[in-house]
Amino acid sequence: MIPDLKDKVVLITGASTGIGAAAAKGFAFEGSKVVVHYNASKAAAETVVADIVSHGAEAVAIRGDVTKSDDVKAIVAQTMERFGRIDVLVNNAGGMLGRVATTEMSDAHYENVMRLNAWSVFAMTREVAPLMAKTGGGSIINVTSIAARHGGGGGAIIYAASKAFVSAFTRGMAKELVGMKIRVNAVSPGVIETPFHDRWSNAAQLESMRQTVPMGRLGVSEECVGAFLYLASETLSSYVDGQIIEVNGGQLMP
Fold it and tell me: Which of 8, 27, 33, 134 is least surrounded by CB atoms within 10 angstroms?
């Protein structure tokens, strides 16, 4: 157990499936109060909440589209109404929205990818940081990607670029918010078996990626959870700020 995570209020965007869902359960099992944000996957989010509640922890599902300003404000407002504070924000919501060659990409596709992966992190941080500051600080953990470092695969260049924004934004905000006692870090997953790859990567692509991983296998969502818990805990990481933790089985060693 990590004692200082008990009773912390943790808001996780995109927490109905995959890494977000695993993180939600991980925090809850440490005694945190968890907001499971979702957009379209209501049933999956409610399943995560039910699992958490069955283990004696507290959680609530809140819907909203993180690409819309009004929804971002509503997600935060509902969290504050329920719990009165936000101690940890995990900006996990994101997606590729399809593999499209850059030379064939429409303006709309580009804007949608950037809005989901980059703007949402900015918007959620802008909304939550002042509230954290009023209650003595907190931890913001962004989810970037191994693609931010190697440029992404076929049809995923703009996705990679949007995650590179997240990485740079993480470092910049760490400097900007340190005076508010808010630490900003990021987790950078490699190839993790989640609905993301179920949707956008075929078996041949996944096998090709697996062969580049020294551990010889793809990761699973639960293997990312420890990084989130570590970065959220003042006991474990009070002097860690502006850092990006790579979770990739050795595929990339920066």
Answer: 134
